[in-house]
Amino acid sequence: MSNVFRVPVGDRTWQRRGQSAHSPDAQGDAPRLPGIVAGVLAPHPPHLLYAENPPQNEPRSEGGWEVLRWAYEDLRQRIRAMDVDVIVLHAPHWITMVGHHVNCVPNPRGFSVEPIFPHLLRYEYAFHTDVELAEAIADQAHDDGLVTRKMRNDGVRVDYATITALHLLNPDWDIPVVSLSANNNPYFYSTSSLDQMHVLGESTRKAIESLGRRALVAGSNSLSHLHWDREQGLPEDMTYEHAYNHHQYRWDMRFLELIRQGRTRELRDLIPEHIDETESETKAGSLTWMLSALGWPEGIGEVLAYGTVIGTGNAVCLWDLEKGAR
Amino acid sequence: MSSRTETSPSFAGAVLVPGMPQLLAERPAPAWAGLADGARAAGERLRGAGAETLVVISTQWFTVLGHQVQVDERLTGTRVDENWYDFDYGTMHYDLHTDVALAEQWATEIESAGLEARRTRYEHFPVDTGVILANRLLDPQGGLSIAQVSCNLYAGVEDIATLGRAVVRAAESVGRRVGLVAVTGLSSALTQRWIEPEEDRVEEPTYEEWDRRILGLLADGDVDQVLQLREQYAREAQADSQLRALAFLQGSGQLVGAADVLEYAALWGTGGAVVHWPG
């Protein structure tokens, strides 16, 4: 298996990758190289999908949370320009108690009513899985020592986090998908094994490279995760939307500053502390998985937007490994 | 310890049962079979005491905003569990009849107590594994109706207790005799590998000690002490959803005496128990 596209932690080889293929005036003619093209932090509050009023979703809204949704709009254009073969998503609400599961159903389809937010998300979904890559990720993760399972049962309902993040990244659903579960204990909100998520990220990268896919990896987590326990009458009434408290907000800003400055190595160290301080949803491991798949690249993080949803902190972020090459 | 000595005429008893689907396995571990038998026995007691409706809170229908009360008259479908889908017990057909009059009155009582009660009535709503399992074991003939409330993980336990008080008031109001059901595990150190049924054991010895301590207190009739230990239990033995489902039962004000611990056993490394309080 080639390691050509492997990006070791913090060594800035992402820059060499882009620059080696292009002269400075060659933008727009980037060769279509295989491997992971970019990683995104793609939060999944169903409120964002609800606010978009897509035809697949039954409830109707008056909008709301526009700044986050505009960031997704911007991100969608950039993803389109990346011309990827597949989106690989790790999301925390396909909770698997034992092991890391990979959805290997070729064409998941169904109607997903969200038990936590049924008034916001009742969505008719249909998408295509890159089954070859899904199986390769499961096999590689198994070889790397993780407990895994290939999910082939088309009766399993696709969860709201997977649907919301994928819809917001690509509402046309015309890019094949690989969906990974979050191995967590649903009954006790302990921090997932971030070490395992790191391994899973590396396994994902190896599988993508071995098959020569051109991939976007998306980790779907909110940041600070304390929120209200009651809802106002109109969910999209933005007069009630603000950070849960100053402490949560400050910690999210500290977190995002590191992303903006590209200090990924320090970010890796901060993730557990941020979890302890804010109950950050990154404890489910999706962000760690994604950045591990990217190789914890230094110097390229972008924060496209930050906003709160029922008091939780949410940021749309991008790590574009080919930045400057397109 | 509770000082009440009389129960409501609308109270037919209460049970605490686990929600792991292994209890329905075609080839169960002896531990799983024991728990299933215990749950069936508890169901017989509820039905024998004249229960007409099972009032269920399941930690597997967890919510985060307000409290949802299921008011859909009939819930039917097939549940494929997102973790156990490859096992015979991972696919469950269900056909549940909601006691709509009770559920509606319950929602009203919850609101009267100052809490948010969202009435939930959506086609294709995914009924959770715990509710289906409990209903099948407690009421194998399907003769009882059901009322369900979600388990809000962000609400204080005093709010969860209010839900229990509210449903007794609602049952009295509509003239229904109810069995209260908490679907919850105890300690939750899941075994992180695929095991054969006979390999199952509580993963952490200290967790089992905690489980047995809690069950001993319940058998002594000291629910209040258990609730005082709840947070410590959660920290030190990963109690399922911080054992808030017990607060629901206690909030009803009907757990007036000693509980009967019918069974305790391992469920994929977690602790599972069947506990009954008489009406």
From TrEMBL, chain A:
<dbReference type="Pfam" id="PF02900">
    <property type="entry name" value="LigB"/>
</dbReference>
<dbReference type="GO" id="GO:0016702">
    <property type="term" value="F:oxidoreductase activity, acting on single donors with incorporation of molecular oxygen, incorporation of two atoms of oxygen"/>
</dbReference>
<dbReference type="InterPro" id="IPR004183">
    <property type="entry name" value="Xdiol_dOase_suB"/>
</dbReference>
<protein>
    <submittedName>
        <fullName>2-aminophenol/2-amino-5-chlorophenol 1,6-dioxygenase beta subunit</fullName>
        <ecNumber>1.13.11.74</ecNumber>
        <ecNumber>1.13.11.76</ecNumber>
    </submittedName>
</protein>
<dbReference type="GO" id="GO:0008198">
    <property type="term" value="F:ferrous iron binding"/>
</dbReference>
<keyword id="KW-0223">Dioxygenase</keyword>
<feature type="domain" description="Extradiol ring-cleavage dioxygenase class III enzyme subunit B">
    <location>
        <begin position="41"/>
        <end position="312"/>
    </location>
</feature>
<keyword id="KW-0560">Oxidoreductase</keyword>
<feature type="region of interest" description="Disordered">
    <location>
        <begin position="1"/>
        <end position="33"/>
    </location>
</feature>
From TrEMBL, chain B:
<dbReference type="Pfam" id="PF02900">
    <property type="entry name" value="LigB"/>
</dbReference>
<protein>
    <submittedName>
        <fullName>2-aminophenol/2-amino-5-chlorophenol 1,6-dioxygenase alpha subunit</fullName>
    </submittedName>
</protein>
<keyword id="KW-0560">Oxidoreductase</keyword>
<feature type="domain" description="Extradiol ring-cleavage dioxygenase class III enzyme subunit B">
    <location>
        <begin position="26"/>
        <end position="251"/>
    </location>
</feature>
<dbReference type="GO" id="GO:0016702">
    <property type="term" value="F:oxidoreductase activity, acting on single donors with incorporation of molecular oxygen, incorporation of two atoms of oxygen"/>
</dbReference>
<keyword id="KW-0223">Dioxygenase</keyword>
<dbReference type="InterPro" id="IPR004183">
    <property type="entry name" value="Xdiol_dOase_suB"/>
</dbReference>
<dbReference type="GO" id="GO:0008198">
    <property type="term" value="F:ferrous iron binding"/>
</dbReference>
